[in-house]
Design goal:
Mean pLDDT: 95
Helix content: 40-55%
Shape: globular
Number of strands: 10
Distance between the termini: 40 Å
Order of helices and strands: HHHHHEEEEEEEEHEEHHHH
Radius of gyration: 21 Å
Oligomer: single chain
């Protein structure tokens, strides 16, 4: 189901067809194998680069799309969600890591990293979460000690998406001894730096094809040329980029909910029980009616948020509303759709069963539902 209204124009829909073709040829046929392997093939990243799916907001001189229109990212996120392609983390690369490179990198850093970023030769990750600090950035313990022309980085990060494949990892570390939000900096750690080690590819209950790892930094010498932005100035950048991250998660959550409702609607029309199709039962019709209405109402709000963000007008509060509402909606819809599939919904070969496991993380990463509500509540009760 394509988004209605006037949010997307002909160019966005043409891009949608490009994404669908890429998914059909390069992703869907391989996804089951990737889930068994726990990681996607590196070559699919290069294929994405050749199709113009990487670095949508990166300047054309570095091989990017040269557009700040978030609607193109939304199209890509929607189509990946509808294909159930959770393994290839293009949105993480484009929408979460990308803004740090495009907004904070100096000219020399852009020349060094962005061509590979857009071609798929350099896969990226961002390392914020630590074993003892999840949503609380103020609790980060990784340290980077100034040694003149370089920093010495020490610390441990966990739950890092793209952690196994990543060639560039933006690490959030403390560069002053003071606690709290101040004194955080962003350092780009590159594959092969001495003291940078990857732990195991974490065994998750869902999103099996998406590599998620522990990262260890022991006396890693990071040159000053790899500092992103200002020293001790990371907190403002981190907060500024969270709205887009949360909106991206919301877009994917709703698209997946819409797709699962379509799948389930077809299923109950075809599935015979009690002498006829399930769809003739009033309870089934009411379930479908409720989910369709909730999806439609959420679509109206989310499309407005995407339009606002494309115009540079989305604030942190509305992004938090979108994130918690859409992901919790997704959780409800997936659960109800699985129930309507009966025993078949519990079988892993059915899309709804895989979605049940893949989508559960969405109310946790990018800021938990509880954190989203705290942000919203504080804005009204200051």
């Amino acid at each position: 189901m394509t988004s209605g209204g006037s949010l997307y124009g002909p160019d966005h829909e043409a891009f949608r067809e490009t994404v669908r073709t890429f998914l059909a040829k390069e992703v869907v046929p391989h996804h089951e194998r990737w889930e068994k392997d726990g990681v996607v093939d590196r070559e699919v990243w290069r294929s994405a680069g050749r199709q113009g799916l990487l670095g949508l907001a990166v300047d054309e001189e570095y091989g990017g799309g040269g557009t700040g229109d978030f609607r193109y990212s939304a199209v890509l996120i929607e189509e990946f969600a509808r294909a159930g392609a959770s393994g290839l983390a293009l949105s993480l690369h484009n929408d979460i890591v990308g803004p740090y490179l495009t907004r904070l990198a100096n000219d020399e850093q852009k020349r060094r990293w962005l061509p590979g970023f857009t071609s798929g030769d350099l896969i990226t990750a961002i390392a914020m979460t630590e074993p003892g600090a999840g949503s609380d950035l103020q609790g980060i313990r990784a340290t980077a000690t100034d040694q003149g022309d370089h920093y010495v980085l020490n610390g441990t990060k966990t739950f890092i998406s793209n952690g196994i494949l990543a060639d560039l990892v933006i690490v959030v570390a403390r560069t002053t001894p003071e606690g709290g939000a101040h004194g955080l900096s962003l350092l780009v750690v590159e594959r092969g730096m001495e003291g940078f080690e990857r732990g195991r590819n974490l065994d998750k209950i869902g999103q099996k094809a998406q590599d998620t790892a522990e990262l260890f930094f022991q006396d890693v010498r990071v040159p000053k040329e790899n500092l992103l932005g200002e020293e001790n100035g990371a907190f403002a950048s981190l907060m500024g980029n969270l709205a887009q991250e949360r909106l991206a998660i919301a877009v994917g959550a709703l698209a997946a909910a819409e797709d699962l409702l379509d799948i389930t609607t077809r299923y109950v029309k075809e599935r015979e029980a009690f002498g006829g199709p399930l769809a003739r039962l009033q309870h089934i019709r009411f379930e479908i009616a409720e989910m369709a209405t909730e999806n439609a109402v959420t679509r109206a709000f989310l499309d407005r948020c995407v339009a606002e963000h494309s115009a540079g007008e989305l604030d942190a509060v509305r992004a938090s509303m979108a994130k918690w509402w859409a992901t919790e909606l997704n959780k409800r819809v997936v659960d109800r759709c699985l129930q309507l599939h009966g025993g078949y919904g519990y079988m892993s070969e059915y899309r709804v069963a895989r979605a049940f496991l893949d989508s559960r993380i969405q109310t946790i990463y990018g800021g938990t539902t509880e954190i989203m509500k705290e942000i919203i509540g504080r804005s009204f009760l200051r």
